[in-house]
Amino acid sequence: MKIVIAGAGIGGLVAALSLHAAGLRDVRVLEAVPRILPFGAGVNVQPVAVRELAALGLAESVRGAGAEVTALSYHNDLGQRIWHEPRGRASGCVWPQLALHRGVLQSLLADTVRDRLGPDALSTDARVTGFTPLDGGGVEVLLAGPAGDGPETRIRADVLAGADGLRSAVRRTLYPEEGAPRSNGTTVWRGVHRSTPFQGGRSMVVMGDGHWKAVVYPLAERPDGDGLVPVNWAVSRAATGEPGAPTASGDAFPAAVSGWRCGDLRLGALLAGAQAAGSFPMLDRDPLPRWSFGAVTLLGDAAHAMAPMGSNATTQAVLDARSLAHHLAAHGDPARALAAYDRDRRPPMNRLQLLNRAQGPELVIDLARERAPHGFRRVEDVIPAARLADVAESYARAAGLDAASVNAPSPYGCHRPPPGRSVEAAHES
Ligand SMILES: Cc1cc2nc3c(=O)[nH]c(=O)nc-3n(C[C@H](O)[C@H](O)[C@H](O)COP(=O)(O)OP(=O)(O)OC[C@H]3O[C@@H](n4cnc5c(N)ncnc54)[C@H](O)[C@@H]3O)c2cc1C
């Protein structure tokens, strides 16, 4: 079975490795950019995704490239704690939660794809522009000429997986009327800056005043000789809601949050001299009624781009990739495999997209702001403890991040069935 993956992001690369591990060896990843460079800032890999990377023999190398996160807390702009929870192994999960630079993770996965699948399995400067379904099954994948000019090329495949991100060309071909991603008016600045460790060195901290929000977490555990660690930071400004209000300018963001502090974390000091890797509108997509159409499907952000709440996007792309490979290995027929993958992954992702649009677990920051704009003595006086716990726990269950889900054996064994038999049939006998 020849499988083409559009996009060498985290989802596309993990899909390639999972397909290879499942015994499907004719896999090609087509990446639009001429070279894979370390763009972006930090991402979180939640324990359930570490479990899946461990099945690919990658947990140790990913672990070595970042920091373990053992605590998460939400605060108001006065630094008062609204919610705190242990994360990863500290919360009873068998696997850790890891934070690392997206570019480091992508390069590690790309190198592993080249090592395991061969140097020709991953092509850069290969932009997928669309596809044509073939009568009788399969698909013809359309590719722009190198460097965007030259004649378009075509590749025949039995399966096309669109892992080509927020502005997916595969999704656009499936849903030509959909248009641009949806913006909620929020602007996000993010980057990586060297700073002194805070709150024990393994904590993710989110602070907000209902308008501005700051998220920080370390990308390394041990400080270098200068006593500093790389820290991922993201500062966002929600839309004012006032028609014609100016968009936030590039230098507005440090000033708005520089007075915020909580415990030994001083945002002003942390962000002093920080250079934003960029500023971005916060974008997402609507849930789709269907991802899989015959020989073509979507995964990762191409399938379910969601607002960045709950540190989930990378994790869910890994789970998509594992599920896709599992179902392709389990079913001889690509269309049946892709339909089974769609049934497995789309319903929970549709729910998660909507939960994230409604602020996900970070909702408690807005609740605290609405109910106690000038702060509180005890958070339970303004938000009942049961409500706080419910926001966190129901989100974790919806995203499959709760310890019970994480510690269960992976449903994506990716075993290749004996010839002529599906994995399910082999397990049933
Ligand atoms: C450059 C970049 C920087 C990012 N930085 C961060 C960050 O700092 N923090 C964070 O939380 N998330 C970041 N993200 C998003 C994050 O990587 C994803 O939300 C998550 O990892 C899911 O990954 P994905 O593989 O589905 O999509 P993506 O990571 O978006 O990967 C999609 C890949 O497809 C490629 N591509 C796009 N169009 C085509 C095409 N037509 N043909 C072939 N290839 C195509 C892209 O170049 C990219 O390599 C970033 C994404 C990108 C592309």
UniProtKB/TrEMBL annotation:
Limits of the FAD-binding domain: 2-193, 290-349
Renumbered residue ranges of the record's region Disordered: 406-429
Keyword terms of this UniProt record: Monooxygenase, Oxidoreductase
Keyword Ligase: no
Molecular functions (GO terms): monooxygenase activity
Organism: Streptomyces parvulus
UniProt name for this protein: FAD-dependent monooxygenase
